[in-house]
Specification:
By secondary structure, the chain is an alpha+beta fold. The chain has ten helices and five strands; from the N terminus they run H-H-H-E-E-E-E-H-H-H-H-E-H-H-H. A hairpin with a 7-residue loop joins strand 2 and strand 3. Helix 3 crosses helix 9.
Length: about 230
């Protein structure tokens, strides 16, 4: 287990940025494997922290190798390491993500990246019916100081079946419901980085609790989960 990020991670990725080819990577693979071992240990320590106040059923640490089959970018390696944490479904919804990348591009993210069609409609219907509770949650002072505003894709005017004049159209037209928080390289390497990330993830819970309730009930508030 590791509570800190290896200080060599950013110098390595900066070198990889200039030498993104298989020959260089293979020559420097031992250094990468040592960094990867540390990062995986860090992600697993964070998993333990999350499970103190949440229920995570899966951690996925993404590989450094890029899938170039359908990409115009043919560079073989990513310039970052990322990991996602899946909450225990179907009762709990939402997910956590941490990406470690040089040049002050590291970030954490939470929320709903690609909601299923049925879930997206259910969320929009909830906002159409009553948007006060979600606004109270995301505008709460501490929450907003950590997470800021929603980010993600949205339709230009209004989804089919919804009025563009609706007072909650700013929420209804969203296709993703994501919050992100950036970190500098210095912040990532700080001894308390894992505490900062854990506290930020803990602060998102009112939002997750609300969305989990929405996505496990119908418009009448009746549970859709099997007993």
């Amino acid at each position: 287990m590791s509570t800190t990020v290896d200080k060599n991670v950013f110098p390595f990725f900066k070198k990889l940025e200039k030498n993104n080819n298989r020959d260089w990577f293979n020559e420097n693979k031992p250094e990468f494997k040592a960094i990867e071992t540390n990062i995986k240990a860090f992600y697993n320590t964070l998993l333990e922290r999350l499970n103190v106040h949440d229920e995570i059923d899966k951690l996925k640490v993404f590989r450094i190798y890029r899938d170039v089959r359908f990409s115009k970018n043919k560079l073989p390696y990513k310039n970052n390491l990322g990991g996602s944490y899946h909450r225990t479904k179907p009762r709990l919804r939402g997910g956590y993500y941490l990406q470690i990348e040089p040049n002050n591009k590291s970030f954490i993210a939470t929320g709903f990246w690609q909601p299923a069609k049925e879930d997206l409609l259910r969320i929009r219907k909830e906002f159409e019916m009553d948007d006060q509770e979600i606004r109270d949650i995301i505008n709460e002072k501490t929450f907003k100081s950590i997470w800021g505003e929603f980010v993600g894709e949205e339709v230009k005017t209004a989804p089919k079946g919804f009025s563009k004049e609706h007072p909650a159209i700013d929420l209804i037209k969203k296709k993703q419901f994501i919050f992100t928080k950036p970190f500098t390289d210095k912040e990532v390497l700080a001894p308390d980085f894992i505490d900062t990330v854990d506290e930020a993830f803990k602060a998102i819970r009112p939002y997750f609790d609300y969305m989990s309730d929405v996505l496990t009930t119908d418009l009448n508030g009746e549970s859709m989960l099997d007993d």
